[in-house]
Every structure is written in structure tokens, then in C-alpha cells.
């Protein structure tokens, strides 16, 4: 019996020591994992771009961005009738899938002006300008400009892609934040990135809108015929009217002088004082 018990006790002792070693190794692994928990980085680039992999991914995306060109134009046309010209403009706009964004009409004694701000698809811009130049009237002035915003669009796109990467990293870090201080710092970073992403996306939408739809400022001008209102009246009537106008002008002049009567009352007093001062000086 003793020979059997001694080996059994020896094996049991060995198993207990091994289990203890395993527990110590598991605890050591847990300590290492806890120590490796991510903490809020002092700068975004230090944590998220250690090897430059994210920047290369954005560079690949920029290769697919097409040219971004914004076209704008101004054209002023003299027409015979504003209403007829406006009807023709509406027909031309329908053919080119364009629309009027703003309309302003001015009617003076000398002329009539209709100013239109037109948005037209990028591909139909040149066709629309040629249609207005040939079919409406006499072109007084025309100005067309093209602005290449590809570089700006690319720059904003790269920054937006990087900010989205940073945002996802911070959201992952927020899930494993160790304490309240770290959570607050990460949440502040997330709010700032979300605001910057909204601004960047808004800028890209604005550029896309200006690229896809060009802007044309069209001004229709009509000069009124200058005719005298008294051209059909006889000489006698016109002579009498001239006398009447002259008399009215004289009366208005006289009334204007009378309105200065307080100054006329002060004038003799000023003369008397001036004479006394001159005598004393002599």
C-alpha cells in the first residue's frame, strides 16, 4: 500500500504545481492586455497613420476624380419687345433642360430691362449661349469664364476621407475607454471630426452643383422711343404753355426769396453794427 500511495501523492503534487503555473501565466496575459488598452492620443496622426497606409489609400481614390470645371457667363441682348423675347427664352430653356433661378424686371422712362439668372446643365451651356446670341436680338456684351476647381475638390476629398478614418478609430477607442476622463476626451474629438466632416461634405456638394449646372446671367434690354409729348400740339398752344411755365417759374423764384425774410430783417442790424465798429476803429 505504501508503495502505491507514494507515487500517487507525487503525481498529485506535480499536477497542482502545473495548475498554479497556468493560473499565473493567464493572469500575466490579462495584465498585458489591460496595459495595451488604447488611450486618447495626443495627436491624431500619431495613432492612426504610423506607417502611412491610410494616406496611400486616399491617393488611389483621387485618381478616379474627374476634372471639375465651373462655367459662368454673362450676356446682354437688345431686343424689340421684352415679352416676345421672354417667351422665346422660355422655349430655348425647355429644349436645353435649363431653368430660371432668379428673375428681375425694371421699367424706366428710358428703357426696359429683364435680368434672368439661369442654371443649365454643363453639357448644354455652350448650346444655350449660341441660341441666345443668334435668336433673340443684338448682342451688346458677352462674357464666358471657366474655373477649374479639380485641385480644390481633390484636396477636400482627401481630407474628408482621412477624417472619416480618424472618426471610426475614435469610435472604436470610445468602446474600450478605461475611465471617464478618456471617454470625455474621445467624445470631444468625435464631435469636432463630425463637424469638420459636415463642412467638407457641404463644400463638395456645392462644387458638384456648380459643376453639374452652369450659371448664365441673361439681361434683355429694350430702349424706349423718345418722343415729345407736345409734338402734336399747335404753335399757339405751345406758346401759351411756355408763358405759363415761365410765370410759374417766376412765382416759385419769388416765393423762394420771400422765405428768407428773417435774414432780411437781420441785414440792417448787421450793417449798423458794422458801421459802428468801423468808426471806433478809426
From TrEMBL:
Keywords: Coiled coil, Membrane, Transmembrane, Transmembrane helix. The chain crosses the membrane at residues 250-274. Residues 167-210 form a coiled coil. Pfam families: DUF4349. Residues 37-57 are annotated as: Disordered. It comes from the Bacteria. InterPro entries: DUF4349. Residues 67-274 form the DUF4349 domain. This is DUF4349 domain-containing protein. The lineage of its organism: Bacteria, Pseudomonadati, Bacteroidota, Flavobacteriia, Flavobacteriales.
Amino acid at each position: 500500500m505504501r508503495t502505491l500511495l507514494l507515487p500517487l501523492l507525487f503525481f498529485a503534487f506535480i499536477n497542482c504545481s502545473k495548475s498554479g503555473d497556468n493560473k499565473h501565466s493567464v493572469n500575466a496575459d490579462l495584465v498585458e492586455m489591460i496595459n495595451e488598452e488604447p488611450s486618447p492620443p495626443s495627436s491624431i496622426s500619431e495613432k492612426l497613420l504610423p506607417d502611412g497606409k491610410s494616406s496611400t489609400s486616399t491617393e488611389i481614390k483621387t485618381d478616379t476624380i474627374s476634372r471639375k470645371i465651373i462655367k459662368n457667363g454673362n450676356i446682354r441682348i437688345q431686343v424689340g419687345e421684352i415679352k416676345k423675347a421672354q417667351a422665346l427664352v422660355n422655349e430655348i430653356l425647355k429644349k436645353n433642360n435649363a431653368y430660371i433661378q432668379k428673375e428681375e424686371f425694371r421699367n424706366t422712362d428710358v428703357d426696359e430691362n429683364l435680368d434672368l439668372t439661369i442654371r443649365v446643365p454643363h453639357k448644354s451651356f455652350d448650346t444655350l449661349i449660341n441660341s441666345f446670341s443668334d435668336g433673340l436680338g443684338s448682342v451688346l456684351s458677352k462674357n464666358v469664364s471657366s474655373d477649374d476647381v479639380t485641385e480644390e475638390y481633390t484636396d477636400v476629398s482627401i481630407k474628408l476621407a482621412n477624417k472619416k478614418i480618424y472618426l471610426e478609430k475614435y469610435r472604436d477607442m470610445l468602446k474600450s475607454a478605461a475611465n471617464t476622463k478618456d471617454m470625455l476626451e474621445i467624445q470631444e474629438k468625435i464631435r469636432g471630426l463630425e463637424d469638420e466632416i459636415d463642412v467638407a461634405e457641404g463644400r463638395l456638394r456645392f462644387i458638384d452643383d456648380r459643376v453639374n449646372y452652369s450659371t448664365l446671367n441673361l439681361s434683355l434690354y429694350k430702349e424706349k422711343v423718345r418722343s415729345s409729348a407736345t409734338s402734336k400740339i399747335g404753335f399757339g398752344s405751345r406758346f401759351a404753355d411756355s408763358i405759363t411755365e415761365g410765370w410759374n417759374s417766376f412765382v416759385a423764384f419769388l416765393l423762394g426769396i420771400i422765405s428768407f425774410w428773417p435774414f432780411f430783417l437781420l441785414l440792417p442790424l448787421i450793417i449798423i453794427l458794422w458801421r459802428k465798429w468801423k468808426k471806433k476803429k478809426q
